[in-house]
Amino acid sequence: MNKLGILTSGGDAPGMNAAIRAVVKAANHYHLEVMGIQCGYQGLIDGKIHPLTSSEVEDIAERGGTILKTSRSLEFMEETGRKKALQVLQKFGIHSLVVIGGEGSLQGAERLHELGVKVVGIPGTIDNDLAYTDYSIGFDTMLNTVLDCIGKIKDTDFSHDKTTIVEVMGRYCGDLALYSALAGGGEIISTPERKLDFATICSKLHTRISNGKHDNLIIVTERMYDLQQLQQYIEEKLNLSVRTTVLGFIQRGGHPSAFDRVLASKLGITAVELLVNGYSGRAVGMKENKVIHEELENVNAKRTDKQDQYRLLETLLH
User: Fold this and answer.
1) Which one, of 172, 174, 167, 157, lies nearest residue 218 by Cα?
2) Which one of 50, 90, 119, 145 has the largest count of C-beta atoms within 10 Å of its C-beta?
3) Cα separation of 174 and 306, whole Å?
4) Is residue 34 domain-shared with residue 132, that is, in the same domain?
5) Rounded to 5 degrees, what angle do the CA atoms 159, 246, 130 make?
6) Residue among 249, 19, 17, 8 nearest 145 (CA)
7) Which helix (H) or strand (E) is 12 found in, with range?
8) What is the CATH number of the domain that holds 38?
């Protein structure tokens, strides 16, 4: 194993560059040449591969996004596309691979493992929706960005006694909304795990206003509502003016937090060490503040054990 490939796939996440740096540095420590694969699995199929040196990654840990670029590849989802990818790996003499990405990316890593490629995955997703690890790279930075945006909105809401609906990212996982509320970011929260209907949202809001709280923040996870319909429903039922803000892709960018940089560094080094020691078909992660690794076939379960967090939230928002 003298050549190690590395790619980032799916949505970008702050801290991916720190993971790339860690992989390259660790690989060089074990006298391995690193080949950077541009634009995820599609770049692998297209042969967009170049040597990645230690000097190239020296100062990238503080940068958001990924220097390797990323994409989602429909071609790789097909067996013919994966066989092309395998042929390219063989052409470039790459015998092992590190994949950084979310659920779909790790599924892709598993498919390559089944084809005989030595591969280890690193969880890089802002959604934090993989049950096998407590945290994925990018989530902490994303959460802090959301809190910063929410803080600015709350200042204006307070000044004008306004209610604002804020939609945060997360796809089908409510961790961003949940944790931002636990950190004091909002008063009414609706997530895929505990979705509130329009009437319940209105009831909670009416209670808060009746108790003298005239500036309120409703945080919802994306893809759950037609926000214009929700806004209109509240305005008609409670006879008040409501604002709606979709934070969108502003949440993804920016310098990764110290937590994400350290997490990425730990996971990147561990991924290389696993490959050096003969492991394959594994994904690294963090559980109870310890670095762990799990079979790739077991890592795509969604996190559902959030009862403690919701119990705390109910107490805080009572």
Assistant:
1) 167
2) 119
3) 10
4) yes
5) 120
6) 249
7) none
8) 3.40.50.450
pTM above 0.70, yes or no: yes
User: Active site includes 308?
Assistant: no
In this structure, what CATH number is given to the domain that contains residue 205?
A: 3.40.50.460
Per-residue pLDDT tens digits for 80-139: 999 999 999 999 999 999 999 999 999 999 999 999 999 999 999 999 999 999 999 999
How does 41-79 read in b/e, with b if 16+ C-beta sit within 10 Å? bbbbbbebbeebeeebbeebbebbbbbbbbbbbeebeee
Given the residues 12, 46, 59, 127, the one annotated as active site: 127
Give me the number of domains the chain comprises. 2
**Is 41 a domain residue?**
yes
Q: Which amino acid is at 183?
A: A
Q: Say whether 226 sits in a helix, a strand or coil.
A: coil
Amino acid at 40: G
Is residue 229 within a helix (H) or strand (E), and if so which, with residue range?
A: helix 227-238
What is the spatial distance between Cα 83 and Cα 60, in angstroms, rounded to a whole number?
Answer: 32
Question: Is residue 71 one of the residues assigned to a domain?
Answer: yes
Kindly report, residue by residue over 149-166, the tens digit of the pLDDT: 999 999 999 999 999 999
The beta-carbon contacts of 31-34 under 8 Å, at least 24 apart in sequence, are 31/2, 32/1, 32/2, 32/3, 32/4, 32/272, 32/276, 33/2, 33/3, 33/4, 34/3, 34/4, 34/5, 34/6
Residue 157 and residue 73 share a domain: no
- How far is 233 from 225, CA to CA, in rounded Å? 12
